[in-house]
Amino acid sequence: MFLMAIANDAAAPAKRQNPSRSGFGLRAEVHDEIRNDFDSALVQRIKASGGTHQAGRLTFRLAQEFGFCYGVDHALDLAYETHVRFPNRRVYLTGEIIHNPTVNEQLARMGYCFLRPGDEVTADDIVLIPAFGAPTHELERLKRIGCLLVDTTCGSVVHVWKRVEKYAREGFTAIIHGKYDHEETEATRSRTTLYPNGKFLVVRDRVQAQDVCDYILGRGSREAFLARYAAVATPGFDPDRDLQRVGLANQTTMLSSESLEIAEMIRRAIEQRYGPEEVKTRFRSFDTICSATQERQDAILKLIEEPLDLVIVVGGYNSSNTEHLCEIAAERLPTYHINAPECLVSAREIRHKPAFSKEETTSWDWLPEGPVTIGITAGASTPNKVVGDCIERIVALADVG
């Protein structure tokens, strides 16, 4: 996607404008610092013992896959390497490097600044691109300035970009299953602007996908469709023209089963509207859910098959993949999505974000009396340290030290 660029002189202004994605050869030097900041000895012991931890009347069962994924590890490696390589340079982040408050607060303590409107970035500065990526217009603006760009964009996200660009190049509208205002989807949809006739439409869920299917099948009015979807589509989007040839993609952290279902819904609509012989020329689809997201969703599905009393899901409230873990577990068990140990106020009171909710709420009597088995999982941007701290907090609240 981008050329690799490594600055040769830490004291001199960066002259190269292409983003660095390979790091600065300091991974071994920053390994211990990252581990100290984000790892948990307790979590490592539980994993080594098969994923079960007994503390008095409490039994904790960890999902087989949870917490930091490869993309997050890579982003943090680059952030810490940059800090070591350029200790005296001003370093900006275009946004949260990942969706976890603990991680972003730690980078702020290290001196990273979030790039705000009006900030005057110069060629002497360094700018980190988050793991979600950044819109094409923002990348081009920064490259024109001449600052060194350190690109931590996850490889799975870049994979989606390539797919969307291919759709735009071949004249297909990219229908993106995602959250329109999520940083990843914002960056992904911007890739269509690289081509003069590139088009996109973002759908959030099955309900919105059904509206698209209905329109393809000739149901509903153009005015009503545009009133609802013009704000999440390419400016000048014309459903009569732009839904004739479509390609499916998705935000990498969406619910996999829903993404696959949406793709099949739209494929069937195309087939019904134009006939089976036209599907190959009018429809494209490729599963772009990242493997780490899929593995964590599979792991929570397996975990909730066990006899549990409740599930704790740990992760940032704005983390899409964490939200979906909560939604999966909540279908079967009392489930509490928390973003920090402090949410565990007492053995009676808990602050959490319920499944399908946008706001934190307070619930009572969440921890039952007597023997309790608690399932634990965490989003791909959640440090083991936060998971371990939450387990220790629950043990302390239950007074079973």
Automatic annotation (TrEMBL):
Enzyme class, UniProt record, top EC level: oxidoreductase
Binding site for [4Fe-4S] cluster: 69, 154, 290
Positions with a binding annotation for (2E)-4-hydroxy-3-methylbut-2-enyl diphosphate: 99, 182, 252, 319-321, 381
Signal peptide (from-to): none
Residues where dimethylallyl diphosphate binds: 99, 182, 319-321, 381
Keywords associated with the record: 4Fe-4S, Iron, Iron-sulfur, Isoprene biosynthesis, Metal-binding, Oxidoreductase
Annotated metabolic or biological route of this protein: Isoprenoid biosynthesis; dimethylallyl diphosphate biosynthesis; dimethylallyl diphosphate from (2E)-4-hydroxy-3-methylbutenyl diphosphate: step 1/1; Isoprenoid biosynthesis; isopentenyl diphosphate biosynthesis via DXP pathway; isopentenyl diphosphate from 1-deoxy-D-xylulose 5-phosphate: step 6/6
Active-site residues per Swiss-Prot or TrEMBL entry: 184 (proton donor)
PANTHER family in UniProt: 4-HYDROXY-3-METHYLBUT-2-ENYL DIPHOSPHATE REDUCTASE, CHLOROPLASTIC
Protein name: 4-hydroxy-3-methylbut-2-enyl diphosphate reductase
The species this protein was found in: Chloracidobacterium thermophilum (strain B)
